[in-house]
Amino acid sequence: MSANRFEELTRVVVSSTSRRQALKTLAVGVLGGALGFGEIHTARAAGCKSSASTCVHSSDCCSKRCFYSGVAGGLVCA
Fold first, then answer.
1. Residue 7 to residue 55: CA distance in whole angstroms
2. Of 18, 32, 33, 68, whose CA is between 20 and 30 Å from 3?
3. What is the chain's pLDDT, residue by residue, as a tens digit (78 residues)?
């Protein structure tokens, strides 16, 4: 690639993106990454137990609350 062609290509790339557009793109990328991380956390929690399911620890429950129920006669998720 000749030097003139490289300079021409560089000018096209630089002139087509404003600072504002670059910041918007960066913000969307950061936001998308944060939302993606939230989805991973939700997928991990999918193995949790629903309300009234038997449990051993609070971490077993989606609500993170495992308590003794006299009605159920043992530990259940809130």
1. 66
2. 18
3. 677 888 887 777 666 667 777 777 767 777 776 666 655 555 455 688 888 889 998 888 888 899 998 887 889 988
CA-CA distance, 5 to 2, in Å (whole number)?
A: 5
CA nearest neighbour of 49 among 57, 58, 61, 65: 61
Question: Please, are residues 48 and 60 in contact by the beta-carbon 8 Å criterion?
Answer: yes
β-pairing, 74-77 vs 66-69, is: antiparallel
- The pair phi, psi for residue 65, each rounded to 5°, is -135, 110
Full-model pTM = 0.40
Q: What's the token pair of residue 44?
A: 């991990």
